[in-house]
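ingest -> validate -> predict -> emit
validate: passed (alphabet ok, no gaps, 288 aa)
predict: started
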Amino acid sequence: MSDARLAFAAPVEDQDPQLDAKAAALDTRLAGLGSVLVAYSGGVDSAFLAVTAARVLGSRSLCITADSPSYPERHRDLATNVARAFNLRHEIIRTDEMARPEYRANPANRCYFCKHELYTHLSAIARARGYAAIIDGSNADDRGDYRPGRQAAREFGVVSPLDESGLTKAEIRLLAKRAGMSTWDEPASACLSSRIPYHTEVTDEKLRTIEAAERVLHGLGFRIFRVRHHDTIARIELGRDEIARALDAEVAETIDRELRALGYQHVTIDLRGYRLGSLNEALRLRPV
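emit:
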């Protein structure tokens, strides 16, 4: 067993032959790529991929975070903190999907234009610096979801080693925990534009309002949440086990006061709770 694999060997009580085989397949795939740019948002998937790539490839791995108005400041902090903790080679670049009218128009395939902007930048960097591949954190669970950004990834030849290795979100969390990543159980999140209903214009003002509203919920100790922006209405989705606390009179008053101060005229709590991609419920689309 190589030193790299030995360093990542699971404790005896945590060993799972199937999971270990997938982890080994991931190492092998990364080693075979030779050198990589990691599209690194700081979420658990891309963070685990970045940490693994750095372990396998060393200085031949570079993770890049794209900073833009739709990228929450808290996510940037998470990405930076993980990079520092694991001594990753990390750079932050500026992308400008908001300059694209088709992105601002917020069609159902909005994510395509965002990823096209990202991979345009990453491809230029890879060519200029001689990196063999661009990799992203898509996993096996993403195959059945509506993700138009995958089209852009295919067009630019982006590789998805986690998906190729058959790793699911739950398995990635387990491996991230094994690797000592403090963010292994960080709730999944998406760009701020995903809080705005399709065909409603994405603006910087809306994004900043959404980010400030979600900062309020985070400050109150909520873990899983989205503030869906319906013009003057804030529709809050929470984890099912957190709804009751939000309905407590004192907490509800604080949420209402703080979000009204941001410009919302009505603050509502969705009693169905948080569900992945709830704004996709209005669409009748096949996975891509």
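DSSP finds twelve helices and seven strands in the chain.
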